[in-house]
Each structure stands twice: as C-alpha cells, then as structure tokens.
Amino acid sequence: MKIAKTKAEVREGTNGRDVGFVPTMGALHAGHLSLVGESRSRGLFTAVSIFVNPTQFNNPEDLLKYPVDLDRDCEMLRSAGCDLVFIPERDEMYPPGQDEAPFLHDFGDLETRFEGHYRPGHFRGVGQVVHKLFEIVAPQWAFFGEKDFQQLQVIRRLVEIIGMPCEIVGMPTIREKDGLALSSRNRRLEETDRQTALILYRALEYAKESIGKAALHEIRAQVERMFQDERGAELEYFDMIDAQTFVPIQSFDDQVETRGIIAAYVGGVRLIDNMALL
Ligand code: AMP
C-alpha cells in the first residue's frame, strides 16, 4: 500500500488506473472498511483519503476532539487490501491564503434542512473538500455510506453540478450487533452512554414498524416521548422524509422512498442515524 502525502504522489500512484475512491476522516472502523471492500470486489485500484476537513466543522470543539489514529488506520487499510492512502497536511488541501476561498456550489434545500440546519455551512465544507479530493484522485467510482444519508445525496448533487464522470455508490450502514451504527464518534461515548445511544436505533425501528399503521404525527410524538423518558439523551431532530428531497412527508405513500432520520446528543456526543422506512 502506497502512502501519499502530496497531490503529486496521488496523481503518480493513480495515473492510468480504474480508481475506486473512499474519502474518510480516519479513526476507521468496519463501516469504512465495507466501502473499501466494495471497491476491491469490483476489481478497482482502491484509494482512501484520511483528512479531518476543518471547513466542515461548524463547532471548533468538535474538530479538536475528533479522534486521530493514523498508525492503526494504515494497518487496517493495509489488511483490507487498500492500494493507496492519501494523508495530506492541511496546507496541501488548503494552501495558505486560499482558506477563505468562496465555495460557489449551491445544494439548495439539501444543504439547509436537518443536518444543514443544525450544522450551518457543514455541507458547503463537505462539498468543498470532496470536490478538491475528486480533482486530485480523479476516481471513476466513489463509495459513500448511507450512514450519512444527507451527505450522500449532497455528493450525488455535487457530481451533477461539476459534471464529474464519477459514479457515486451508496453503501448500507454497518451496525454493531445491538443496532448501534458504527461511527468514529462512538469512541467518545462512556460505557453507560454506549447503552443510552441505542435509543437512536430504537426510535428508527419503532418508526419503521409503525409507518402505515399509526398516524405520522403520532409516530413523531411517540419518538419525542421516548427521548423524554431516556436520561442522558437529548433529541435534536427526528423526522420521516422523502429520501430524494429531504422534505418531511405529510402522509403515508408507499410509492415514495421514505427515510427516518435522527440526530441526538448522548453524553455530550452528537450522533446521527437513519433508516429506510419503506
Ligand atoms: P467519515 O470518516 O465519518 O467522514 O466517513 C467516511 C465514509 O464512511 C462516509 O462515506 C461515511 O458515510 C462512511 N461511514 C461512516 N460510518 C459508516 C457505517 N457505520 N456504515 C457504513 N458507512 C459508514
């Protein structure tokens, strides 16, 4: 596995190959490796990036606390059969003086609803860094997790806007046995919070069982009650949305691809999850 620190090293390593790309922020787990595995199983030269992108953090403390474990990450990637890992310094991605360069893409409603609403500027930061990474790596395929479902839709929109000939592949969320979605942030959960964190999954499962049976307002109210009854968990949002537009559904329609989406703080750690409801 080649370790590249500069754009030039990446271009040299990927040149002339069919590239499958997996962008990450490191602190890797089986969710990330499932994306690497999918790229490998398609016979692609598999490139992974590890870069904790400062422009997508609206909360500076969250950026400071983001776990970093590069030696372990590289070992995991090597074992998973990754061909190249790109680990740039900040200046390589954002040359001094260009940090504030305006980002012109407009993702419309997708960037202002839910995650976009609670994390202003987040998706512009994501779009900015993924655009830069796509230009450097020039992949024909890129793999993203449904765990960050709104991000996946933003990236699909991004490639449309920039006209990049890259196929975006969305992959299912990998969970612990008890249902907790794998996340680098789970490392920051205390043992008791780890149990409490299951409430996100329970709420989504409840919505999945109830949709088409209970009224939508009743499902929304019941999820709120679940959180009121749970100590140490604070609901930020829960809703049932049209998966393409992120507009909350007003009535049950089995012809509309519907997702339950949820964000909550558990022990001070912000967690998100989502699930196909139909
Ligand atoms: P991150 O390092 O958190 O930016 O995530 C990098 C990629 O891994 C993104 O496409 C995520 O959606 C994906 N990912 C994160 N957690 C999971 C998971 N539990 N299952 C599948 N993919 C995931």
What would you note in describing this structure?
This protein has 278 residues and is of the alpha/beta class. It is built from twelve helices and nine strands. The protein has helices at 7-14, 30-41, 60-64, 70-80, 90-93, 109-112, 115-118, 122-137, 149-162, 191-196, 198-210, 216-228, and strands at 2-4, 19-24, 45-50, 84-86, 141-145, 167-171, 233-242, 258-266, 269-276. The strands form two sheets. It has a six-stranded parallel beta sheet, with helices on both faces. A three-stranded antiparallel beta sheet has the order 7-8-9. Strand 2, helix 2 and strand 3 form a beta-alpha-beta unit. The longest helix is centred in the middle third of the chain and has 16 residues, at 122-137. The radius of gyration is 19 Å and the shape is globular. The structure holds adenosine monophosphate. Residues 24-25, 31-32, 34-35, 144-145, 147-148, 171, 173-174, 181-184 line the site of adenosine monophosphate (AMP).
